[in-house]
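Tutorial, part two.
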Amino acid sequence: MIKTRKSITKRFKVTSSGKLLRRVARKNHFNAKKRRATQLRGSSMRVFTGVDAKKVRAGLPHS
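Running the prediction step on this input gives:
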């Protein structure tokens, strides 16, 4: 039985259609100097594609 990597489940979300979603980077601290529009742009999840997405899917066998 293949185990799911728990670190991947905390960082990514799989939608019902099978797309991978990821968080936007640079949102943890030093946000006071950023414009409000920049902060709001980073509040949504982004679709994760490419070669790295295949590696992430390998760590999520049950989703």
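The domain at 6-58 is CATH 4.10.410 (Factor Xa Inhibitor). In part three we will examine how such features are distributed along the chain.
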